[in-house]
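Checklist before submission:
- one chain only
- standard amino acids only
- sequence pasted in full

Submission:
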Amino acid sequence: MSVPETIHDFLVAAVNDATVKVSPFVRSHGTDFPFVIYDFQQDVYTGSTPSSPGPPLIQWEATVVDRTLLGAETIAQRIVTAAPGDSCPVRVKSLVRSYEPSYDGQRPGEYVITINMENF
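Returned file contents:
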């Protein structure tokens, strides 16, 4: 299984809610709230030698977006709690909360929680 597939499966299992869509890089056009997107920051090769790159440390982010703070926090905490799992060795590095107001002022804004993680 590839690293993106492993991370996708980890997030789907952690969220544990079929109504929360999980997708890489961008939100699918028809997806409603809440949703989770993930993207990859970089692969760091700390043990590289002239003959082998060594195993990578994969740095990535999962971003939870919802119309309510409680909803976003609940999903983010599910991911953080699942991180020290056996099936996907994940370490949480940081968590950043933000709010994006509605572009038209008519709808609720978006609560955004970004979880910086790494696989090792």
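Reviewer check: DSSP finds two helices and five strands in the chain.
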